[in-house]
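Case study 2.
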Amino acid sequence: MNWKTIFKSLKNKDMQKRLLIVLGIIVAYRFLSHIPVPLAAPTELRQVINSVVSSTDFGGFLNLLSGGALASFSIVLVGMTPFITASVITQLLTKAIPRLEELHKDGESGRKKINQWTRLATIPLAIVQSIAFIYILRQTVLAGNSTILTNATPIEWIVAVTAMTAGAVLLMWLGELITEQGVGNGISLIIFAGIISQLPTMLSTIGTGLFDTSNGSMNIFGWFTIPVNPTVFFVALGIAVVSLVLLYVLVKINEAQRIITINYAKRVQGNSNYGGVKSILPVKLIAAGVIPVIFAVAFLSLPAFVGQVLKAMNNPALLGVANNLILWFQAPTPGNFTGSTLEAFIYPAAYFALVILFTYFYTGIVFNANEIAENLQKQGGFIEGVRPGATTEKYLSMTVNRLILFGSIVLGLIAITPFLAEYLLYQLAGISGTNLSIGGTGLLIVVSVGLESLRQINSRALMVTYDDYS
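Prediction:
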């Protein structure tokens, strides 16, 4: 990362404009997250929802990803999930349907059509998810013997669903505006901003779980006393050291890349010579960035969400299925987990597998070996020792698959390490409720998005300061 170039680029008006637009959009998003859904008694309703959300890890995790919009019952509480789901569906269909794959290869016009279909698919998904949220909310509030929503009319519920759907569409639009500025991925930056806004509360919760006066105290060289017993202190210190090491590894694997040298054949046109030069093709170890983690979290939240919907229906025939979905597909808390040890590892194992799966899936989208091989052949470029065309495509695919295999496994291990740390903390020191699994995933997303955004800002900075080096 060339910080000197980045700071120098801040004097450029175009760079200033882009960064200010992104900053303004993030500020607007944070304002939207505090606008309540137009329903009865918003202040009292917010208190009821906040108590429900804070009582479960699943609710706390959804609240973290939504930037506190869930606890505030904001119009943007649905978040980017409908757009992410629509993106995954259209990308899968692009790979499965030859007509869509041809449209994707048509260039910018084809991709614009696919993006437009993705936006259209987001709307019904947002409506369905908004109705589900409203239904769960109504059943939860009524089950708590609250009279807040007893007088709500069908028109008020329709207005609430419409507001939530409009919030999801507005958030999708804001994300695309950020992406257009070329200084970061819109989806990732909005989730990043939401997590950053919740970090103080999250760190306070973790600190409260670790430094609990009921666990005793520890005297440091007779100077001052820490409200924690020695066992908890050293276990927490070990977790902190391991966390720093993991963050270092995460930064390294995000920055790691394989350099492939590209040769261009010399061509003679008239009195001029073209080509005969060398270039490089950098292939990142994890070309998908943080998107696999976001996709994995979004998909893992769906089974538990379906379980909440089924449970709210109060159907005895579906109650067992609903409880199992909620039990299996939420971040397990060792001290409060009521299932077996095997069931406690379902969520981390599924998380690990989905991170690997989505790393392969999304890399296949952002790195198209066939397209790159065709472009190199058209431009007269070739890899030394590799024939142009199909052989080059096979070589690039093999290289990328090897990189993904190692990178995705490391990324998956980093993603599930907080679960193991929370389990060890409970086994060794008897401490539970620290929310390390929630905090670990949040920090993982923050670090990855931060690195990716800095990389794009650095590329933009090189472009705007290019004339200074010519």
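Residues 59 and 429 are 26 Å apart (CA to CA).
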